[in-house]
Structures are given as C-alpha cells and as structure tokens.
Design goal:
Blueprint lengths: L1 H17 L6 E9 L10 E6 L2 E7 L5 E7 L2 E8 L6 E7 L5 E9 L18 E3 L4 E3 L12 H5 L5 E3 L5 E3 L5 E5 L2 E2 L1 H5 L1 H7 L5 E7 L13 E7 L6 E10 L2 E12 L2 E26 L2 E30 L2 E13 L4 E8 L5 E12 L1 E14 L6 E10 L4 E8 L5 E29 L4 E26 L7 E2 L5 E20 L3 E18 L4 E20 L2 E12 L3 H4 L3 E2 L5 E4 L7 E13 L5 E12 L2 E7 L5 E7 L2 E14 L4 E16 L4 E18 L3 E10 L7 E3 L2 E12 L4 E8 L5 E10 L2 E10 L2 E11 L21
Parallel strand pairs: 1-7, 12-15, 34-38
Antiparallel strand pairs: 1-4, 2-3, 2-5, 5-6, 8-9, 9-14, 10-11, 12-13, 14-15, 16-17, 16-48, 17-18, 18-19, 18-47, 19-20, 19-21, 20-23, 21-22, 22-25, 23-24, 24-26, 25-26, 26-27, 27-28, 27-29, 29-30, 30-31, 31-32, 32-35, 33-34, 35-36, 36-39, 37-38, 39-40, 40-41, 41-42, 42-44, 43-46, 44-45, 45-48, ...
Length: about 800
C-alpha cells in the first residue's frame, strides 16, 4: 500500500495547495407574473458577463431559482420564458455583498398571442464531443424492448456479431463501464451480459477510442461507457413492460429530490432467449497428415433470467459539497444447455467412437456494490476535489452436469462439476481539478490541471471439483485430476496528472501521463504451487486539435494495458463437452497497446455532421484464445500470449436531419488486421469491414417510424476466420396520454428465421470448419408510462469510482 499512500499524499497536497477558499457569490429569487402575481415555473435564468454566458438554471415548480458558487464581479441576469418579455437585470457581487436576493422579480406577458410552436431541431442521434462519440440511444425508438446488444449494433466504430461479441475497430479487448463505473455483469462475459441488459434502461453510449490519463490504463481497444436513464428532480418515475418471443421484461424507476436530499430507486427483471444449431468437422493432424475426423451436431434453446436493483442517496450539506451513497445488485442465471451428437472416425471413415452428450450448464452470477463519495466544488467553475470509496463482491459460479449415452441409449458416464469463483474488490480514489487562464497579447488560453491517485485491491479465488458416476453401486467419485483451490490477489496502485489547454483561436491540447504499479500473487492450494510478479507501466497520452470554422482536425496518441482478469486466469477446466475442453491460464502476462489516430469532423450549414478517422493500433504480447488438438481428437482452448496484433483502418460516420421530420445516420469501418506469433510460427491477416445505417421519420398524430440495419464482413483471429453477418429491423411508436405514455412495436430480421455463418480454423495439429445457424427473427411490444413532475435539476453531479481496468471481452 505504500505506493498508493505516497500518491494519495501528493494528490491531497496538490489539491490543498491549489484550492482557493475565497468567498463565492450567490443569486436567488422567485419569478412571478406581473399581471396575476402567480409564480412562473420552468423559466430560463441565464447569467452573462459581456454578453458571454457564464452559467444558468431554470425556476422550479414554485418559481424559485438559485445560482450559487459564483465568482465575484459584474453580471447581467437574463430571465426569459415563452409568452413573456425577456428581462435583463444588472447585478454586482462583491466581498462585502456576495449574496443577492431578488425579492420583486416579475415578467411581463407579451402583447401578442402566440400560436402553436413547432420545434424543428432535436438532439442528434450521433454526436462528436471531441474526445468521444455519443450515440443517444433514448432518441432511437427501435431500441424499445430490445437488449444492449441491439443498441451497440448501431453505435459508430463498434461491430457486434450474432453471438453478441463486440469489437471496436477490430479489437475485442474493451473496457465496458456503466455510468462511468465497472460492472461485474459486463466484465464476466460481455456477450451474454449485453443480451440480458434491457435497452429501455439505456440513455446513451459513449465511445472513447483514445482515453486520457484520467482513465485507468486498462482496455487495449478503448472504453465504452453505457449511460443509463436518470430521473430528474422533483418526484417522478416510469414503468415499462415488454412482451415478445425473444425478449421479456418489467421495470420501474422512481426519484425524489427535496432541497438537500435526493433519493432514487430502480429495479428491472428480464429474460432473453437464444436458439442455435451448430455443425462442425475437425480433422486431427500429425506431421500434416490426417489421424482422425470428429463430426459434431449441436442444438440449444436457452432462456436466461436476471434482474437488478439500485438505490442512491445524495446529500448536499451546503452549496459547494455533496455526499453520495449508492448500493446496487446485479444477478441472474444464463443456462447454456445443449445436446451434442459426436462421431469420431479414422481417415477412411470407419467409426472409432460415437455417443451423445446431454449438457446442462448453469452460470449463476451476481454483483453487489457499495459506493460512498464526497465532492467539493469551489468558486471557480470546474474547480473540484473528490474522495471516493467502493467495495464490490462478485460471485461468478459455473456448474454443469453431463450425461453420456451410446447410440443404443445406454448411459456411459454421468459427470457433475462445480466451480465457485469469487472476486472481492476494495477501491480508494482521490481527484483534483484546477482551472486557470492566461491572457496574452493576441490570445487568451484556458488551462485545466488534473491530478489524482488510486488503489484497487482485489482478492480473487476459485474452488472447483468434478465428480463422476460410472457405476451405480460405487456411487459418485471425485476425480483428483480435476480438483484444485486457487487464491489470487491483484493490487494496482496508480497516479496521474493531465493538462488541458484551449485557446480562443480554437487550438486544444490534452496531454498527460499515468503511472501504474501492479503486484500479483497466486497460489494453487491443492498442488502447493505459487506464482508472483510485479510490473510498472508509464502510460502517456496526448491529443492535439485545431478548429477551422466548421471543421475540426485532431491527432492523438496513447498507450493502453490489458491485464488478464479472473475469467482468463481461472484454471478450472470446463469439460462439459469431452471433445472440446476450455480452461484459463494463470500465467498470462499483460498486453500493451499503442494507439494513434488522425481525425476530422465537420458540420455543414444544413446540419449534416461528418466524422472520419485514420487509425493505427499495435498490441504487443497480445492475448488470444488458441486451440490445440491431441491425437485422440480432443481440443483444448486456453488464452495465451502471442507476439503482435496490428490494425490499420479508416472509420467514417455521417448523421443529419433531412427535414424537420426525417433524420438519418450511418457509418462504415474498413481495416486491415495483421496477427503473428513467432513461437507458434503462425500468422493471419486480411481486410474486414462493416457498415450500419439508421433512419427515423416522424408522422402526424404522434407516430414515429424507424428502420435500421448493419452488415459485417466477418472477423479474423490468429487461427481462423468467420464469414459475414447482417442485422436489420423496423419499428413503429405511438405516443399518447399527453406524451407521457407510449407503445412501441419492433421486429428484427422479419424476412428470414435466422442467419447462417461459417468459421474455419487451422493450426499444425488440426483444421476445422463450422456451420452456425442463429434464430433471430423476433417481435416485441413495449409499453412505457412516465409520471410525476419532470423539472430540471442543478448541475451538481454525484461522482463514483470508475475501475476502467475491469475487462469486458
């Protein structure tokens, strides 16, 4: 811990040295109608200096408003509301009089009567915020009743295959966060998790291809941040229900905000169904010659069930401080039952072994997490100090039962396996942000200094046993070769500093460095073997951009590190399919990536936004799942470090509003992948691409129609490739009850029952071909009702720890 406490003391000393305790100004008042004396709720209150907006708010349901934490000085307070004349009030805040209370603050109604107001513009479906792309999922009606996998299929720079596996520009080593913090559900098995997270809960998706020093260095490809819907101030909430042949769900959100206190509750239950058929043929090779051939036919029809709940409490002891507490739980069980017919023959076609394997596979998982944090703001805008703590407990268990039958239906073997896996995690984090400006002869430069320190302490364990029943009289017998207890600790201590700089001439620079020290200890208790390692990483990051009228040019470079986590390290052997074994590798080393990007964005006068990027990625010591096959035709799959993974690509995204009712967006990604392992004397390379589009049209009487689709040419791994895949859907939405309720009908891939894919793999010990059929024709109907007062809240936000270094693959 000493490394962390040194970093912590440095950050606290920097925060105390830079923080200013000057008195902050405050403006409060109540807005009323000059003719009726009634209060005016939801009016706009803007504070300006020399015609430049400083800050703003809206009046609440009683017409009251307040602006706090203001620098002292001279301002103009501008108050406006539809149907009233705009009112401007000069105000002065001084050391002797820092608080101003506007007792008689009245707006005068306009002389003319306003007709119906039609709002033409709306938030774009895809936004470029410089350091990230944002997909506003709540604006996309086709997401209603779907899953997070459906949502991510429409996000620029991402590709999602039919199994739900996600890649960012050809790389699957991603960090997936929820509201800026990690989720064990996403980290455990990203593909399964995305299928079970309801799309109704998602507000937006942030894609960060070049994370800065403030982010944990984990995540070779980048960071995906899933922002869930948050209730506004007052009392409000919503309920939603989805019925369909593949998706079902029921959820609610409630929020209450009263002066200094805020309480929010959320709960959701869901189900997702998965149907697949798989046929594979694998030839075992010895010195390049066939030894035997394994043919397998597998069928599966599974429905996963899960749910989550969250409670958060915020308390503001004064206008500059916030204490927040949150507790949330995720949990569920996604079965992966299947029936597999096996036939092993010699090269001449003579049967060597034939049997049927009935597999009942369960993966009950969960995550319980507690967050407690304190945030302090100062008189300068964006000056902030925070101290955050977090504890999480993530059980992740695997159980399977297999019954092996001969072709004459004779029971040959019954096997039962348990693997109890745990992950306790303790995190401490402190951050300080200090803004300042420097005025030059020809330009003014704004700076923002960020410093912080963090410690993540992980206590991980796995206990697994396998029992076999070969003779009913002898009963169950424990297989000692498939039993072990594994303890593992991983402690990461880090500190960072970053400097953001912006000029009025539209130059912007964000440069920083992050230092991370990792200490690992592992112990196989049963076999009495141990492992230990520690390493340091200095991660630089720099982004330089220049604005030219409506154009922005940007160049960036950063490094990323990918540490293997428990689901990669776990030595438990999954032998539910005796011909295809899977296990983890506790001796994996971390991989380090170099990422360079040159991008351009422009928004035309007609509102069309075009974002393009040339990028290069190189990953050293890359982690890949590799297969080996022994002479009996049994395959073993485990993660291993290979030499390099390279990617060169071009990404283009367009979005715009054709007219007041019609919006469209789409994108494409073209990249060349190059992988090579000198140790295995094997490599693979090739060009892959994907495209996606989305179109929405608003009809009269609160109807909305939408169409979306995507196509990917396939993926490339070190040992193989898979063919292309597509996805398309249509949806229609009808709003009613004064737009507080809606019904949405969505269909996916309606013109075919499913999609077929092929995959090929080869290595010195085997070659194989697989044919996959995924049933994905689906329909769903979603009802949503929103109730309560939906008035806007202040700008103060609760902060929580974000352990970006938890993996989602």
């Amino acid at each position: 811990m000493k490394q962390f406490f040194l970093l912590l003391m440095l950050a606290l000393w920097s925060g105390g040295l830079l923080a200013q305790s000057d008195q902050a100004g405050q403006i409060t008042g109540v807005l009323t109608d000059s003719t009726t004396s009634k209060t005016i709720p939801f009016a706009t209150v803007a504070l300006k200096a020399d015609a430049k907006l400083i800050t703003g708010t809206t009046t609440d349901g009683t017409g009251a408003f307040g602006l706090t934490n203001l620098p002292l000085g001279k301002y103009q307070l501008e108050i406006s509301f539809v149907g009233y004349r705009t009112k401007t009030i000069p105000v002065v805040l001084t050391n002797s009089n820092p608080t101003l209370r506007l007792e008689k603050n009245q707006l005068t109604p306009e002389d003319r009567t306003l007709g119906e107001v039609t709002v033409v513009s709306q938030k774009a479906l895809v936004e470029d915020k410089g350091d990230r792309l944002i997909y506003n999922a709540e604006k996309d009606i086709s997401n209603a009743g779907g899953t997070a996998a459906d949502v991510l299929r429409k996000v620029p720079t991402l590709s999602v295959d039919l199994n739900g596996n996600v890649q960012m520009r050809g790389n699957s080593n991603l960090k997936v966060l929820i509201n800026g913090k990690p989720s064990a559900m996403m980290a455990r098995n990203l593909a399964d998790a995305l299928k079970q997270m309801p799309a109704n809960t998602i507000k937006s998706i942030e894609v960060i291809t070049s994370p800065g020093a403030k982010y944990d260095a984990e995540g070779s490809a980048g960071v995906i941040n899933i922002i869930t819907k948050k209730a506004l101030q007052g009392f409000n909430g919503s309920v939603n229900a989805t019925a369909g042949n593949f998706n079902r769900g029921l959820g609610t959100n409630l929020a209450l905000k009263k002066k200094k206190w805020g309480l929010s509750l959320a709960a959701n239950g869901y189900q997702y169904r998965n149907i697949r058929d798989i046929q594979t043929n694998r030839t075992t090779l010895l010195d390049g010659k066939p030894v035997n051939i394994l043919s397998q036919i597998s069928t599966g029809d599974n429905t996963g069930t899960g749910g989550y709940g969250e409670m958060s409490i915020d308390y503001d002891p004064d206008s500059t401080s916030r204490i927040n507490f949150a507790a949330n739980v995720w949990g569920g069980n996604f079965p992966n039952d299947s029936r597999v017919f096996n036939n092993l023959t010699d090269p001449a076609g003579v049967s060597l072994q034939a049997f049927r394997n009935d597999i009942r596979f369960r993966n009950p998982y969960g995550n319980g997490q507690l967050d407690l944090g304190y945030t302090k703001t100062f008189k300068k805008p964006e000056q902030e100090f925070s101290f955050l703590t977090q504890f999480s407990l993530m059980p992740d268990n695997y159980f399977y039962d297999t019954d092996r039958y001969s072709l004459s239906e004779q029971l040959l073997l019954r096997q039962h396996s348990t693997n109890y896996s745990r992950n306790k995690e303790y995190t401490l984090q402190t951050d300080y942000t200090h803004p300042f400006t420097r005025k030059g002869a020809k330009d003014t430069t704004s700076f923002k200094l960020e410093v912080g320190a963090k410690a993540i302490l992980r206590d991980i364990g796995s206990e697994y046993r396998v029992e076999e029943l070969r003779d009913a009289e002898k009963g169950w017998i424990v297989d000692p070769t498939q039993a072990n207890d594994f303890d593992y600790t991983q402690n990461v201590y880090s500190g960072y500093t970053a400097l953001r700089m912006e000029t009025k001439r539209k130059w912007s620079l964000n440069a920083g460095a992050r230092f991370e020290h990792t200490d690992i200890r592992g112990n196989f208790l049963t076999t009495k073997t141990a492992l230990a390692s520690q390493y340091n990483n200095l991660i630089p990051s720099v982004t330089l951009s220049k604005g030219l009228k409506t154009h922005t040019l940007k160049v960036s470079y950063t490094q990323r590190i990918q540490r293997p986590q428990i689901w990669y390290l776990n030595p438990w052997l999954n032998a539910s399919d005796p011909k295809n074994l899977q296990t983890g590798n506790p001796y994996l080393d971390p991989e380090v990536s170099h990422a360079t990007e040159l991008s351009h964005s422009v928004t035309t006068k007609k509102g069309v936004s075009i974002n393009s990027a040339l990028y290069w990625r190189q990953t050293d010591n890359a982690i890949e799942f590799l297969s080996t096959v022994d002479s009996t035709g049994v395959s073993l799959v485990k993660p291993q470090n290979i030499a390099q993974r390279k990617a060169y690509g071009l990404n283009i995204n367009l979005s715009g509003q054709i007219n007041k009712n019609w919006t469209m967006n789409g994108g494409s990604d073209l990249r060349y992948i190059d992988l090579y392992s000198p140790a295995l004397k094997q490599g693979n390379s090739g060009m892959i691409w994907n495209v996606n589009f989305n179109s929405t049209y608003k009809l009269p009487n609160n109807y909305t129609l939408q169409a979306n689709g995507s196509y990917g040419s396939g993926w490339i791994s070190l040992q193989g490739t898979n063919s292309g895949f597509y996805w398309y859907g249509f949806s229609a939405k009808r709003e009613f009850w004064d737009k507080k309720a809606s019904l949405t009908l969505g269909v996916n891939n309606p013109f075919s029952r499913g999609i077929r894919q092929t995959a090929t793999e080869s290595a010195p010990s085997f070659r194989s071909e697989g044919r996959y059929f995924f049933v994905n024709r689906s329909a769903r109907l979603t009802f949503e009702w929103r109730f309560g007062q939906m008035n806007a809240g202040g700008s103060k936000q609760s902060k929580k720890i974000s352990n970006d270094d938890r993996g989602g693959r």
